[in-house]
Queue: 2 jobs
Job 1
Amino acid sequence: MTMHYPLLVPSILNRARTAFPSKEIITRLEGAEGGVHRYTYREMAARVNRLCNALNFLGVKQGDRVGTFAWNTYRHLEAYFASPVMGAVNHTINIRLFPDDLVYIVNHAQDKVIFVDPDLCPILEALAPRLESVEHYVILTDDPEPATTLPNAVSYESLLAQASDQFTPPEMDEWDPAGLCYTSATTGRPKGVTYSHRALYLHSMAECMADTAAFSERDTTMAVVPMFHANCWGFPYSSALVGASQVMPGVRPDPQAICELIDRHRVTVTAGVPTIWVGVLDYLERSGQSYDFSSLRAVISGGSAVPVSVIRAYKERLGVDLVHAYGMTEATPIVTYNRVKTHLEDLPEDEKYELAGSQGMVVAGLEMRLVDDEGNDLPWDGEQRGELLFRGPWISREYYNDERTAETYIDGWYHSGDIASVDPDGYVQIGDRVKDMVKSGGEWISSVDLETAIIAHPDVLEAAVIAIPHPTWVERPLACVVPREGARESLDKAQVMDFIRDRFARWWLPDDVVFIEEIPKTSVGKFDKKVLRERYQDYVVGG
Amino acid sequence: MTMHYPLLVPSILNRARTAFPSKEIITRLEGAEGGVHRYTYREMAARVNRLCNALNFLGVKQGDRVGTFAWNTYRHLEAYFASPVMGAVNHTINIRLFPDDLVYIVNHAQDKVIFVDPDLCPILEALAPRLESVEHYVILTDDPEPATTLPNAVSYESLLAQASDQFTPPEMDEWDPAGLCYTSATTGRPKGVTYSHRALYLHSMAECMADTAAFSERDTTMAVVPMFHANCWGFPYSSALVGASQVMPGVRPDPQAICELIDRHRVTVTAGVPTIWVGVLDYLERSGQSYDFSSLRAVISGGSAVPVSVIRAYKERLGVDLVHAYGMTEATPIVTYNRVKTHLEDLPEDEKYELAGSQGMVVAGLEMRLVDDEGNDLPWDGEQRGELLFRGPWISREYYNDERTAETYIDGWYHSGDIASVDPDGYVQIGDRVKDMVKSGGEWISSVDLETAIIAHPDVLEAAVIAIPHPTWVERPLACVVPREGARESLDKAQVMDFIRDRFARWWLPDDVVFIEEIPKTSVGKFDKKVLRERYQDYVVGG
């Protein structure tokens, strides 16, 4: 009697098919008519059914992982739906991972099938002998005989052509896994995060709430963020749930392609990392081209902090709201979204831009805590810094088959590793990652704050501040500075220290400055402070 | 590890308290400063904690039912939260029920405590000896010695003053009951519907989605619909979830009070039955008063169909969107909401008003079917009529301890009893209740359509069309007509039949017309066709 109505991905597809059958999915496709492939949710749903039958045919069982190694296209979108609709798990693989990490995650996930875009085949061909679990590679092409050395390769369109477009999803529980995404750890192998049907469904509802991203039937959404990044920030499912049109930027979208898609297809909401939006600004300046961006109601920026200057440039030069959001693979991924509360609307312009530069408020549905390093709650006073903890219906509870779960998920709370302050209105301002903070005499010093100050010096190209051991204070900050070309001989320690001296409490100032050739970087281009910390672990100030 | 994060009402309160502590709840209160009581979510949350402790003190245990018999006020809102937060069930009792029904539902629900507004005490005083389960009546007043003959009566404010404002909710499951509401059946006793924490939470998220009512922090909501009607259409919980300000219209709000509250407190969204909105229009015309309604973005009308003429009057005379929604107690209650799809925006004005007069589309999250009387799915072609069936996360699965469950909940689908057509865009147009349809020779005839046509005759005051038995066709329509004053002698059958003859297929036309003094009505003012069917069960045409 109290029969359970589960929250399932198939219901999202069903909503798009029945309520918005003629809304379109438009994929950038060079050489196609108008430069795009376009079809409707009705057609998509029929092809998803075919794909479900095809996966059955390939031997995929309920609970099996099905990998994708692909750009943002309608075929990738079909895989996003088909795997969970037929009971399997949609495992989106980052095409930019180092080969050893790729091998690790495919084997760790035990992917049974992988969908691969044709131009990405060479990457997997080199690794195929080491990918133990993969039984079939499905090449995302209409070429019936795709040219690849991948074993058991099959053409996507040939596969679909053979399959029926009628499919009934199996019995599923909302706690069953539907998605899987690995997050690149800066230490050790990537860690996998499983998304349940329930988490994906609730995240979609939350994203469509008026005070989150407010996805609507009126929208044309475009995820520039790759579909292999953290559930594509929810775009594929949230858009389908409300019948928004979707624009998919296809293979290797550059700033010009992004601008053209926004202009031609009247995109209303788009999203990507700050690098993308800085690149678009830069392209517009260099090219002198102009585009019609009047359809855009929000450009969502996430993945790392976006400078206030960029937010300001978008508003003042393009008339576009660049909206800061914050999240992580472990959170499906949205945890905060930046909207101005009504009582803050009359702030002076500069303060409003500062507010827009924060990560925004935790979204409805989630709980957030700010804690010190002993786990005590800190006040939301805009001053005190602590680690952000989250829990809620779309926050994961573990890493997939990974012992590192215990380090991150404690007493039901996900420990983000992000250090932030929270103001009395709930706006989050993120500083460092926990492991990048300097803990001096029991007090935290922000390496990011020091770096930002040092980089402002005209003769400095890059700067990284790390903790070095200290007999009294346990840790003290050391500044590693890369001078600009032409200043390599002239820039000295005193100039750097003098430049930042008045901006920090005395005990925050670095104990020393070292000049280096370049800052070591990780595979995704972030500072690799682990390498620096190892290099300077025995550093003696003035030694 | 895969620890469950349940969807609970306490999380909604927690959201309002932590993210929107200074947003206000404003209650119309005659004699108070500015004519209102006002306080913040922070203050409300502290008082809810006090009330939780007070309920514990009164012996309320997890799962117990706590009744409310009250107007829309901040104290009623506190009860809405406190009962589910402390693990009990918030049972909102319709203050307008007939005495025997009141006795029935209080005893059936086994309410342990009832919150009563002072002016409503006399109603319960007369019934108290028959209310077997009630151990305490809490009078919603700050008078420490409320004047009532109710046994074990206690003052609400005295109770709160003694209680601590610190409270930790007990362990709960999201499937636990949190709310209870009885729906008045036209036959038999009222039927109870239980709302789980999960259903209330998901209904709140859905109501805040951009394409549903889009509740937002920017809103000031005002439920004119009584808090004892079908979960108050979600207003108390949805508003708190997003930190919207809430205006509560207090004791016996009349059209003037409603207009003043909208004007003074800049209400953005309000909701009520059509009678309310027709009354407001009428008041504005009669009084010649004018109010500032520019803050209003939506006046939601539900409970019964609203004439297109009223929607048009709101738009043209007041510049306000009157939005048609449809739901029922069994559905927490929202099932459809009327928004114009983008591709329909260019319709001619008249067609747009016709569309606005429909019930709108089924909201995201729910599934809808249109079926014939054998349960076969009918096409959504805007023509064929069938019964609407619903299922989804906030559609109830049973009546509370009631054998009538089996008549309404079949194979996981709630059978609404409403007959409608659905157009290809998914817009629902409701005609009759199933039991009011005439089934002639296997085909359905809409009594509502015939009534609407007959009532348009200038000499007709009211008309009800019912089914009478027929040897060949099983049923045939009979028109029961009440002439206007002054036309009692002149109006005859032929005039009525001639007036509607060209508007219907011949087999739809009533077999006969009878003239009566008045149409019998139910307790809530609806036509009581059951009485008419009994009266005319042996009627012979022309006999």
Job 2
Amino acid sequence: MNEQEFDRMLTKYADVVVKVGLNLRKGQKLSIRAIIDDAPFIRKVAESAYKAGAKYVDVLWNDERISRIRFEHADPETLGEVPNWLLSRYEDHYQNGEAELAVYSTDPDLLAGIDPELIAKERTARAKKFEPLRKYENVSNWCVVATASPAWARKVFPGLSTEDAQAKLWEAIFNSCRVDLPDPMQAWYDHRDNLIKYKNYLSAKHYSALHYKAPGTDLTIGLPEKHVWQGAEASFKNGITCIVNIPTEEVFTLPDKDKVNGVVSATRPLNLMGALIEDFSLTFENGRAVKVTAKRAKAICAN
Amino acid sequence: MNEQEFDRMLTKYADVVVKVGLNLRKGQKLSIRAIIDDAPFIRKVAESAYKAGAKYVDVLWNDERISRIRFEHADPETLGEVPNWLLSRYEDHYQNGEAELAVYSTDPDLLAGIDPELIAKERTARAKKFEPLRKYENVSNWCVVATASPAWARKVFPGLSTEDAQAKLWEAIFNSCRVDLPDPMQAWYDHRDNLIKYKNYLSAKHYSALHYKAPGTDLTIGLPEKHVWQGAEASFKNGITCIVNIPTEEVFTLPDKDKVNGVVSATRPLNLMGALIEDFSLTFENGRAVKVTAKRAKAICAN
């Protein structure tokens, strides 16, 4: 893909995110969380959002390297410090029913070698700080998308140069997000209709349980009697319906919390906010995790 | 300068900024305003600050390109929109006597071609929003420094590649900031003592007026009877004294606002928040500007 073609694809991707993912309403503000490596994509999103009538595009940039520098050099006693303005920014946002885009492209090895106790301390403090935000559940349209950051791309395509690895990862993202199709918007509306068909089919079946079998996995998940299947779209209190994950292929429902039994094993690494966890398994008895095995069990337990 | 040498200089520069420029106190939070291109330097500052005992380094990143995209594509009616959280962030900052670093490396052509009326509208709204911050004057230590951003470097060294231009501009910054001396800290303390000597000398002279003569300039500035000269250091209500501009070569005093007469002409372009103003002159009569000439007079008048 040459530079011009890549630019065209990035523009189409941004349009999919703003129109299908967020379904941004004219006059809404758009809040974005991104890392500074995401700048080329975020600029496209900002342009698309302003063209769609956004009142303001408010980008909260983060630099992952500085997050790591804090763990490396700050006095551990200070890791509970979370700025007040972050909370007021979100409260203002939710109270006004604004749109929110979260862009994920975390370096999978960002916190490699950092003491999990320190990571847990920082995360616990943030979670506690943001507790007042729980009451704003489902107030406004949001969307989560991914970008091909250099670090993530290098991890996924280790044999290639950073540039080639990023190009490959972008191709995979464009493909999975239907951006490479002639009419991505229509493709998404068709896909949404398809997922709605599946979720309605499953809801109508009233299954009593799901049974998952695979190497290392034998798990039974009981379902509540009146469970319903969800997927594709979500609707919010500000009246907007949108597709909150780009891409999404899932339909999902709620388990009966007391009827989960068996073992589930991960066959892919899990990137938990910069800590990579591999080869882990969870054993459940009546909904309680009774055993955890993992290469980095400490990191799992701390979270 | 090879990569390793550059890294060493950037580390020394960050240390000068944290120790001499901010005189950061152990346990202080440090708030930083920077553009995302500044990341390599800001990471060094964060490391230096945490090593000096900073409680938290809070970087407010901005992307200049998105600032421009707003002017290009947003509904002009929305340009008065300024997020509330920006104000609460600063209020929190000042109320707690925290340290603040502003990093300037603006693209001199950032807003070229944008209607000055739109720029004025956005700036007026910001100024109005931040009015409540005026009461916090001199509460806490701050510092302003520069970095060699790609756009600024290309403007200053137009014949070179971006990479070479940045290297040249960094060299100039390291030199003017005494970072290339064997002991930059001591060099700054010596320089400060020197400036203090000059300001005391000038204060003792009790001059009645300053007369500036140069091509295009013939300006007389009357001084109040009890004027004093300042420079080098500033002291703040949180008890910290520091050198707020890195670099600084100036000593300064207050004019008598009714006793400024004559013409002053700019011989260098002025970068006013992304709008470049060239070849401008101001004519004063008894302290009032009675005539303004400029290539972009509209932009000047709007501000």
